[in-house]
Amino acid sequence: MKNYFLFIILLILVISCKTTYTESDIKNTSTTFYEIYKIDSIKNYYIIYAKDERLKFKILSKKQNQYKCDKLKINNKYPLQILPLSLNPQMFDSTSPNYLNRYSHSLLCYPLKDSTNVCVETGIADIYFTKNIVGLCFVKN
């Protein structure tokens, strides 16, 4: 019984810890050129598939209409500063039962605020976000 209460207290502490990214996190992240090789969408998000010399990445971008912009093009390379989605908890639905149980079938899944679940795919390093992409537009820093 004592161990059960200790487990509950530790669980509450872990849940209450909130990691957020700051502008300095973005500025301290090195810029690498990533080639865009596929663009997809799910509900209110674009999923941008990118790769560097070694790995493939899945970048999430909220759908937004941008009229005058440098629209992303497949097979083009862009200097992006990407960060793991786990560093951007304001996108998550922490009330979702999937929030604590994000591992589904050995793959990491993130429950987003609009009832969208986005999962890491086989061969993809992780799910990322970047301030360099707004909607489907590349934004120069």
Can you give me a brief rundown of this structure?
This protein is α+β, with helices and mostly antiparallel strands and 141 residues long. 15% of the residues lie in helices and 37% in strands.
Task: Give the key terms.
141 residues; alpha+beta; six-stranded mixed beta sheet; 2 helices; 12 strands; Lipoprotein
How would you characterize this protein structure?
This protein has 141 residues and is α+β, with helices and mostly antiparallel strands. The chain has one domain. The chain has 2 helices and 12 strands; from the N terminus they run ααββββββββββββ. A hairpin with a 2-residue loop joins strand 1 and strand 2. The termini are far apart.
Count of distinct structural domains? 1
* Strand content range: 35-45%
Tell me, what's the shape?
globular
Secondary-structure-based class equals: alpha+beta
Major beta sheet, strand line-up: 5-1-2-3-10-6
> How many individual β-strands?
12
**Could you give the order of the helices and strands?**
HHEEEEEEEEEEEE
Number of helices: 2
Protein name: Lipoprotein
